[in-house]
Every structure is written in C-alpha cells, then in structure tokens.
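Researcher: I'd like a candidate sequence for this fold, 163 residues long. If you have to choose between options at a position, lean toward the conservative one.
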C-alpha cells in the first residue's frame, strides 16, 4: 500500500514545497510555513493571499502582517503582487534574506499563473492598479517618516524650552 497523503507534512516538488495544501517557494522558511500567527499568511489574510504569491507559490507576507504582527522578523512584506516593501529594514527584505539569490523568473511555475511575467530586466510587470497601490503606500510611508521626524524635533525643542 502506498504512502498516505498528510497535508501537514512538508513535501518538496522541485523549486517549491507543499504544506497544509499550500504551495511555498523552496526558499520560504519551513518553520514559518508550519507556524503562521492567526489571521496571517496564505490561508487567513486576504492581503497575504493577494500580494504574497508569485506564479502560484507563497513567497512572503503582506506589508501589514510583516510590520504589525511579525515586526519585520519574517521579512519586510509585499505591497502587492511582485512588489517588495523597500521601506522595510534592509535586513528584513525578502530578496536580501530568505529569497536571496532567487530571481522573479526562478520562483514558482508560470503554468500556475501565466499573468505573472517579468520584463527584460527580470522584474515583475505589474498592472496600473498595482503601480498606484505602490505609489500610495510609498507616499504614506514618507508621511509617517516626516511625522516621526517632526515629533522628535518638537520633543527635543520642547524639552529644551521647558527646562
């Protein structure tokens, strides 16, 4: 009799693996795949489902889960399909850490999602809506940084004047 299928067993299939009926890039940390916080990851977070997949495999969490739940300890997150959060700390960016050495062309299987294509520079081709989402995210991040800077300046000035 053959092996019984166990969805909670990691099975490697070339450049990806399966766990709990989800496909993951072979470089995605297996300890993360087997232990998502509630409400996060490829089964429970709609943003992770939309932005964390490439060519049919899960490659990383969305920016919200990465920042708010995992405090960038599980990567910097993806803003949308094919766009890494470059505002995250350098040491948490997926292509600088656990996906290091991979290219977009190497990840997943084009047959899983023929729409996930790369340009001549091997970068993802994204839609206008995704491009707008990235621009909006980046503007919001710049505003946050500006507000933090202004708050620090105000705090320093306030301390100086209140003495």
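Model: Candidate sequence:
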């Amino acid at each position: 009799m053959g092996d019984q299928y166990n969805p909670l067993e990691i099975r490697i299939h070339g450049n990806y693996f399966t766990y709990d009926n989800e496909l993951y890039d072979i470089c995605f940390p297996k300890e993360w795949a087997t232990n998502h916080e509630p409400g996060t990851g490829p089964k429970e977070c709609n943003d992770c489902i939309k932005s964390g997949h490439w060519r049919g495999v899960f490659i990383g969490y969305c920016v919200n889960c990465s920042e708010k739940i995992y405090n960038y300890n599980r990567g910097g997150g993806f803003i949308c399909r094919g766009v890494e959060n470059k505002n995250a700390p350098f040491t948490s960016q997926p292509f600088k850490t656990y996906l290091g050495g991979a290219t977009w062309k190497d990840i997943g299987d084009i047959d899983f999602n023929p729409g996930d294509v790369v340009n001549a520079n091997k970068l993802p081709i994204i839609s206008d809506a995704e491009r707008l989402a990235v621009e909006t995210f980046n503007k919001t991040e710049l505003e946050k940084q500006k507000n933090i800077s202004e708050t620090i300046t105000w705090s320093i000035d306030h301390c100086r004047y209140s003495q």
